[in-house]
Amino acid sequence: MKKRLLSLILITALGAAVIGCGNNENVAAGDNSEVPKSAGEKIELTNVSYDPTRELYAAYNELFKAHYEEEFGQTVEVTQSHGGSGKQALEVANGLEADVVTLALEGDVQVVADAGLIDDGFTSEFELDSSPYTSTIVFLVRSGNPKKIYDWNDLIREDVGVITPNPKTSGGAMWNYLAAWYYFEQQGQSEAEILDSIKQLYANVVVLDSGARGATTSFVENKQGDVLIAWENEAFLSLAEYPGEYEIVVPSVSILCQPTVAVVDEVAKKHGTEDVAKEYLSYLYSDEAQQIEAENYYRPSTKAIYDKYVSSNDSNTITEVPADGKWINNNIALTDINHFGGWAKARADHFADGANFDSIYEQ
């Protein structure tokens, strides 16, 4: 959304020269040898992330820069790139030189690993399957909820216009789809019935944006549709920015979204940024970073900080950002990707060419 583009979207082109200073300024782009960083030299780090993390990393990068300079005596300049998570993964796999990726799901990071850029075992490199924060999927509706949308079954009514991004390009859209699938499964529907329900839902989609932030713009700024299927943090940012105009509806069931982070090993080796890249992702688990994550409406992984933000209000309709800052709604049954057999199986069953999504969504 235009008002919230706090961080620059800078993309490093395939084959671009490694930018250095001091003794490294003449290193050619094609040289894959490690480029060591000397004390006092400014370090340049590129984080390729997904759409709704713009505000989070704008704040976190400043925190990390201060931490790294105090701890190691070096200045770090972090360049951000944002877009649909699936599209971002393909960009990195095809040559966009990211030192780290902080994508919407493990499956998108696996795309980069499959290109030979990330070493095996990336989900074990950092705590909690390399997922320092989590989120879930909720609905954003207009003030007063004029279409009376309360759960997933309301999204298949003929009078409801839905906004959600495209699972082919957006990791968040995959979470949206799987959360809906789980709901209809919990209603006792057979697979054929679930496919029919999902088809009805996507028949109501007004516009299929490439990423989550584009979908938010379509709903909030362009006034399209009656409901946005949204990341929890996106929904709260809209409440904060447009007070009195929108409401969050927390459905009865949803999915625990686990964004995954990883060092892009081959690029970090080339740039000589392996140590700073690891520290950049490790520090996401620090109390200071966890606090920033919570303030940006991501669910922190540290229990003590998580508990500080749990709401005592059991209503599934949220009309404003709570004045006490306690925004986490635990009144929701969450499944996770294991229910779908993990990301490799979920992709094969639902999002690969010719899989379920292709069969139900008429282009």
Explain what the structure shows.
- The longest helix is centred in the N-terminal third of the chain and has 19 residues, at 54-72.
- The chain has two domains: 2-133 and 258-299, D-Maltodextrin-Binding Protein, domain 2; 137-256 and 313-360, Periplasmic binding protein-like II (D-Maltodextrin-Binding Protein, domain 2, 3-Layer(aba) Sandwich), CATH 3.40.190.10.
- The protein has a six-stranded mixed beta sheet with strand order 7-6-8-5-9-13.
- The two termini are 26 Å apart.
- It has 363 residues and is α/β, with parallel strands linked by helices.
- The chain contains 14 helices and 14 strands.
**In this structure, how is the largest beta sheet organized?**
6 strands, mixed
Number of helical segments with 4 or more residues = 14
In the CATH hierarchy, what is the superfamily of the largest domain? Periplasmic binding protein-like II
CATH fold call of the largest domain: D-Maltodextrin-Binding Protein, domain 2
Q: Could you give the order of strands across the largest sheet?
A: 7-6-8-5-9-13
Shape: globular
Short description:
The chain is of the alpha/beta class and 363 residues long. It contains 14 helices and 14 strands.
Which characteristics define this entry?
alpha/beta, six-stranded mixed sheet, four-stranded mixed sheet, 37% helix, disordered N terminus
Please describe the topology of this protein.
Elements: E1 43-49, H1 54-72, E2 76-81, H2 85-93, E3 100-103, H3 106-114, H4 127-130, E4 133-134, E5 137-142, E6 162-163, H5 171-186, H6 191-203, E7 205-207, H7 212-221, E8 227-231, H8 232-241, E9 246-249, E10 253-255, E11 260-263, H9 265-271, H10 274-282, H11 287-295, E12 299-300, H12 303-308, E13 317-318, E14 333-335, H13 343-351, H14 356-360
Helix pairs in contact: 1-11, 2-3, 5-6
